[in-house]
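subagent[fold] <- orchestrator: predict structure for attached chain, return C-alpha cells only, no commentary.
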Amino acid sequence: PETLVMHAGRVLAYGPTRQVFATVDLEGASISPPQVTRLAGRLAYLGMDRTVLSVDEFCAAYVRALEDRR
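subagent[fold] -> orchestrator:
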C-alpha cells in the first residue's frame, strides 16, 4: 500500500506506507505514525526494524533484534 500525506494543499510525502512512516517528518501535517511504529523507532538502537506497522510485525522484529544481539 501507498500513503499520500498532504498539508495546506501541498504533498508532503507520497510512497510506500512503511517508507513514509519510517522516514518522513509528519508533524507538519498533524499526523503521526502508528504507536507501534514509533516504539520500533525508539528501539532502533537495539537493531529494531523501524518500518513495522502492526503488533505482529513488531513482535517478530523484536525477537529478531534480540537474537541478533546474542
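orchestrator: received. Logging for downstream: Residues 55-68 form the longest helix (14 residues). The first strand starts at residue 2 and ends at 7.
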